Amino acid sequence: MEAITGDSSWKEVGTLGCKERAESFWKAIEIWLQKPHVVNRRLSGASILLRTVVPYRDALIFLRDEQPLLLRESLTRECLATDSRLMPRGVKDQNEPEIDDITARNNDDTRNVDVCIRKLLPKQLERNHAVNECVILDKTLKVAMFISFQKPNSDTESSASFIMYAYKICYTEGGNGPSGSNARLQLHVCEQNSAVEGSNGVTNPTSCWLLQQLLPKLVRWMAVSDPTKPVNNTSVIDIEKYTTLYQKLKQKYGPDLIKAWPESTDPQKFVFEDIAIATYLLLLWEQEREDKHLCSRQSFVDLGCGNGLLVHLLNSEGHPGKGIDVRKRKIWDLYGSNTHLEETTITPSDSSLFPDYDWIIGNHSDELTPWIPVIAARSSYKTRYFVLPCCFHDFNGKFRRSNAGLPQYRTYLNYILEIGKVCGFELVEDTMRIPSTKRVCQIGFERTYSIDKQGHFEERIQEFVNDRCHQEISPAHQCTKTPESHVTQNNKDLSHAGHVTQCKSHAGQHM
């Protein structure tokens, strides 16, 4: 570990000035730690395998003794959880071997540091391997150190040879001005690093990329991020499983779908986006089956299914279900008989409930978006829903923003969340990895009430919808009215009596 502990082993590559305090530096480092894919577009993301606080000496011992462990691409949280060297402790083990003169060079080697083991996941797993990286955050010295051990591509997993790649980013304050007013970020790479040989530009970026891309991004994050707010990187699904399955489905379905695409829209965008959404749902449902000990695959209805590609993918992967849209697309004929699609108008009423299906899906479902939680709640007590809001629609027309202090998209997401809560769902909001600016999904899992309260929530939902429709009706508001003779009594209960908007699905017309 001489290369890591010796100051002479590090080479300064460059510096960049900043005006923020150390707290902002650590917030920026935390973003890079948890969300490297927002800077390095060749990464799918990072899976955090372990976070702990240990003495600096223990972190170095771990790096010295556990290099074969870090080389394992199959490394898991469970493997690391059993390693005592990364468990917090206050008493030194007298039987533990010393590290070559570390104590002589670092009198403060007992200081605590934050240690994180993260797995960097490249988008193209067929070209690049995932790499485990040990990150040491030294809050005392204001240094963030990133160390990884990578096998040469020709080596097998059992091989002892490896390439070490390490860099560190230091925060220093200078001058006599206020704290942070004259600070700098310094980038150092390890001399043994051999940045030329060790860098693959994906999991191990070049020193040039770190200097020209990462450091400026860190400075920008320091300027705009609130250091008191934690970095939100929670996800409903495991990022490593997602990356693996997405690549598998992309290779399985992507080439043929793009080649045969009969629509006038860009096949690259729609094919890969729906493959990503299908990947997400497949993993979501796989986890649900494990948690609830379900034997059969979940069924679904995709309302406003548009080109029907998501339905085709889910059907092809073994999930029973169907898609419904007001207009048939050319591509429907290419899917085959195993893909179930229906061309019909969807009007929220007792005739548009789906008690025999497990999940209601609203994937960019336009006018139907606010109705998705309502339809799911009224279909059955066990029905769940997934909605990916896009265009801003209310029950009876366009959504009108009431909070000018928030972006319209965030305001609309909050409104759809409110509908889900009114309907009695336990809700989760997640950011999907799709090529779209509208990529926040909402999931209604279990209910917040017992089944004997179903009638009460039916009344609550009806009251909420009627109230919203009353707000929407005004002389300046243009809405399409359906004659009362064409509306069922239950439909009138769910909308403003006498002014029922004909809620047809136009999802997919943006294709």
Ordered list of secondary-structure elements with their pairings:
Elements lengths: L1 H4 L4 E9 L3 H13 L8 E13 H10 L1 H5 L5 H5 L20 H4 L6 E11 L8 E8 L4 E8 L12 E11 L9 E8 L4 H4 L8 H18 L14 H22 L6 H26 L7 E4 L5 H8 L4 E5 L6 H4 L5 E3 L15 E5 L7 H9 L4 E5 L4 E2 L2 E2 L9 H15 L2 E7 L8 E8 L6 H19 L16 H6 L17
Parallel strand pairs: 8-9, 8-11, 9-10, 11-12
Antiparallel strand pairs: 1-7, 2-3, 3-4, 4-5, 5-6, 6-7, 12-16, 13-14, 15-16
Helix pairs in contact: 2-8, 9-10, 10-11
Say how many strands there are.
Answer: 16
Helix content: 25-40%
Strand order within the widest beta sheet: 1-7-6-5-4-3-2
- Let me know the average pLDDT: 82
Distance N to C terminus: 56 Å
Shape: elongated
What integer value in Å does the Rg equal? 27 Å
| Secondary-structure class | alpha+beta
Largest sheet features = 7 strands, antiparallel
Count of helical stretches: 16
Question: From the structure provided, what is the oligomeric state, counting identical versus distinct chains?
Answer: single chain
Low-confidence stretches: 89-106, 155-160, 473-511
Strand content: 15-25%
